[in-house]
Amino acid sequence: MKIKIINTSSHPLPKYQTELSAGLDISANLSEAIILKPLERKLIPTGLFLEIPAGYEVQIRPRSGLAIKNGITVLNAPGTIDADYRGEINVILVNLSTEEFSIQNGDRIAQMVVAKHEQVIWNEAPELSETERGKGGFGSTSK
Q: What is the value of pTM for the model shown?
């Protein structure tokens, strides 16, 4: 699949880090470093603009290394970029650690996954079919 992209940053296009990767790493596009204090969140620009085909979305997800090593994650994970959005891709990062974290220009800050999706047509009904689980949720199937 081909997706149109405009890259206004000085960094390479997002790329897969291994042959079987699902996510493409994306980088911060900064004029100066950003410091994330503990529990602070900031919008990080990437300099990327996409034209996503109809029937697809781009999901912005955390990088596992940043999460486990530094407590840095994507706040609204996964963030969804809809096919009709044409603005710059920005990533909401949050620092869940007890230490300040510095984000430098070009740092790989998140990953994007391109995914197909469906749109539903609601079928209003007076009742739903019965299942063994029923209304059980939030841990009702185990301890």
A: 0.88
